[in-house]
Amino acid sequence: MKDETAVKSNSQIESEPKAIELTNMNAEREEGKEERDFSSDDSIADPNYHIENNDLSSDSDETVEENEEENISRKSNQNITRKRKMQPELWKSNVAKRLRNAGKEYVGKNNKVIRERRLGLGCTEKCKLKCNTKFDDETRRHIFDAYYKLPDLQSKRTFVAFNMSSIVLSYQYKKGTRRNNNAFYFKDKDGVKILVCKSFFMSTLDLSGRFIRTVTEKSRSDVSGIIVEDLQGKHGNHSRVDDNIKDSLRNFIKAIPTIESHYCRADM
Fold first, then answer.
1. Total tally of structural domains belonging to the chain
2. Domain containing 111: what range?
3. pLDDT digit string (tens) for 242-251?
4. Are 145 and 223 found together in one domain?
5. Which of 26, 117, 181, 206 could form a disulfide with 167 if both were Cys (CB 3.0 to 4.6 A apart)?
6. Residues 163 and 205 placed together within one structural domain of the fold
């Protein structure tokens, strides 16, 4: 029995250092695993290693978002423009109309430059009425300036109509002639109407034969002799969209869901 107990004690003594060695080996293995998990790329000495920090990343994201919002607000402020007011007096057609009424040079609808109106030479020496002897250049200039100071075309036509009258001939040599027999007058310094020839009248005011014919036709259309107002562009037969179609379009637009705008002028 003593021998068996001695053998057991010896075996226990021998097994204790082996167990210690096994525990040391296991500890070394675990350390090796930790070293493998923490590689050289993760070491502090590695310059490429970056420590992940959730707080820093969240702060950077917030700053980026703030910068983007600032850029968007700046762009929106730059794109905001006030609606220009309508200025009909600066429209090309209205500018051309004012220049035409004043006898100045202007550009027509076909981009054609129309020369300014000038005081003509009057009639020739062969004129039977001797118009050049009745009115000097100063009086003719005064008539010319007064005519082109009239505000619009209607008043100019009225001026010509009141200084022109039709003549009824006692005998007509040609039948079916289209020639209009009219007498033209100018007032002198005393306000007396003096008969002048057609060429003198037209050259003093720098008018064309077409203008005279238009005034004659318009004055004949009314019994009183007053020039009928030109209704060009003033008719009431304009094409209009039916009110039912407009209402359906308004209802369709209102049915679209609305969202809040990303900027408001009141907040600026």
1. 3
2. 90-117
3. 999 999 999 9
4. yes
5. 181
6. yes
Q: 243 to each of 32, 173, 247, 250, 251, how far by Cα in Å?
A: 87, 62, 6, 10, 12
In this prediction, residue 56 carries a pLDDT of 44
Q: For residues 104 and 98, what is the distance between their CA atoms, to the nearest angstrom?
A: 9
Instruction: Give pLDDT, residue 110.
Output: 87
The string of pLDDT tens digits covering residues 80-136 is 567 788 888 888 989 999 999 999 999 988 889 999 999 998 888 888 889 988 998
Provide the 10 A C-beta neighbour count for residue 152: 13
Question: Please, are residues 189 and 139 in contact by the beta-carbon 8 Å criterion?
Answer: yes
- Residue 95 forms part of a structural domain: yes
> Structure tokens of 185?
């007058």
Taking each helix axis from N to C end, the angle separating 153-162 and 209-220, rounded to the nearest 10 degrees, works out to: 80
pLDDT in tens, 19-69: 555 565 655 665 555 555 444 444 445 555 454 544 445 555 566 566 666
Confidence of residue 202 (pLDDT cuts 50, 70, 90): very high
Indicate the length of the chain as a whole number: 268
The reply to whether 131 and 221 lie within a common domain is yes
pLDDT of residue 16: 53
Q: In this structure, are 97 and 140 located in the same domain?
A: no
Chain centroid offset of residue 50 CA: 57
Regarding whether 159 and 94 lie in a shared domain, the answer is no
What span, in angstroms and rounded, lies between the C-alpha atoms of 150 and 236? 28
Please indicate, yes or no, if residue 164 is contained in any of the structural domains: yes
- What's the rounded Cα separation, in Å, for the pair 164 and 158? 10
In this structure, are 106 and 155 located in the same domain? no
Residue given tokens 């369709």 in the structure block? 252
Q: Specify if 142 maps to a domain.
A: yes
Whether 127 is covered by a domain: the verdict is yes
What DSSP element (H or E) covers 182?
strand 182-187
Residue labelled with tokens 């005519």: 147
